[in-house]
Amino acid sequence: MALPASDLSKQPDNRTTMDLGRVLPCTAEVRDGHLFIGGVDMAELAREEGTALYVFDEADLRWRMEEYLRAFRSRYAQTDVVYASKAFLNKAAVRIADELGLCLDVSGGGELACALSAGFPAERVVMHGNNKTPVELEEAMRAGVGRIVVDSRIELARISEIAGRLGITQGIFMRITPGVEADTHEYIRTGCEDSKFGFTMKDDFAYTCVGTALETPHVHLAGFHCHIGSQIFALHSFREAADVMVGFMARVRDGYGHTVEELDLGGGLGIAYVADDEPPTIDEFAEGTCSAVREACEARDLPLPRLLVEPGRSLVANAGVTLYTVGILKTLPGIRKFVAVDGGMSDNIRTALYHADYEPTLANKADQPRTEIVTLCGKHCESGDAVVVDMPLQKAEVGDIVCVFGTGAYCATMASNYNGQPRPAVVFVRDGEARVTTRRETYEDLYARDL
Ligand SMILES: *Cc1c(COP(=O)(O)O)cnc(C)c1O
User: Fold this and answer.
1) What is the dihedral of CA 356, 358, 362, 366, to 10 degrees?
2) Which of 83, 187, 310, 407 to mutate to test the pocket of ligand 1 (most atoms within 8 A of CB)?
3) Are 316 and 410 contacting, i.e. CB atoms less than 8 angstroms apart?
4) How far is the CA of 268 from the centre of ligand 1 (A)?
5) Active site (annotated) includes residue 103
6) Which residues on adjacent β-strands are paired with residue 170?
7) pTM (2 decimals)?
8) What distance in angstroms lies between residue 196's CA and the mean position of ligand 1's atoms?
9) 105 in ligand 1 pocket by Cβ < 6 Å?
10) What is the pLDDT of residues 51-74, one digit of tens each?
């Protein structure tokens, strides 16, 4: 797939790095023309650790986790914040989530294995997936995973069979598609009716299946789950979903005499990828969600359930940046200007996949205005391989260090070895210290599995 044609009328914004506002991790600052994050000079870090490199501002990550806990629990005491590990996962992130008292959402056996190997308590794990294999389900149940989100009738029967064999009662949620259309990109909209996920409410299918679940041995239907999409700015979408879900809980109580004690509203809060994005704050999101659940319960005389939210992107995206080194410059007059970096679709597939936008800066010219419009292309054998299309950048030269903001979510976890590219290391920076939390892949790693 080719790149979209360059918009030649687009003008540089002349912003310097610190003008980029919300996309910056919270400790970003410029000293002597260099970008510092967590008190560490990004240009120097790039030289020491090599590029491409994922860097996380640990203070920013911790702040967002704590802010989620504070914003929800100050309004709704019985809230658990469940870190959606598919957004970003390594052992260091799992340990921070554990230390701060978050729960963890995993979407299969691999993410579960990472969580367990980092010592995360299984009872605080929620397992997702529309087609967890029987092996993955058994791994989860043997480990003692607290909640498994059931996505289909076939899976319900599978879980019951395994739980019976293991002599346990498995706590489950049923994933419901509330039919709420979230105002976001079509490919990441999952709450609408045409979805491979969950039980549809259409024709009372979900309601009928609740009856089946209540009669199924070896499972305990603890609650319902929904996830209406991702990168959502419209708080009313979350409020609508909460109302539909509480309405469903009331219907189950009235019809089956069973009041579930938990409600998991999934993730989906959007973040600023470009400086002009204005997503709701975590605090505004919490206010909207908590008040919607409270009002919906009061209207139906339901006791307040334990509430779970599953943020992924809004916890990690702005904490993370990617560093690259400029290798090649190519100007195609009347077409576009290419700045080629030493990574691309292998470490960030979102641009090729969704035409995602990002703000770049030059870490070693961070105080200079961004006076050119460029496309940051990667090094892969694919015309659509780009990290940034048509965005302002300072005048780049070979050897400059590019920093792309907002890459903390869905980049490392979607990374590939396309063209034999070793996946980047992950470095956490904090208080002037940099620690490698995932080492860079080696060439040997690339063929270590070949027999
Ligand atoms: C992807 C996903 C999340 C996290 O979504 P974000 O948009 O990253 O917050 C949470 N729950 C489920 C079930 C998901 O699939």
Assistant:
1) 180
2) 310
3) no
4) 6
5) no
6) 219
7) 0.96
8) 15
9) yes
10) 999 999 999 999 999 999 999 999
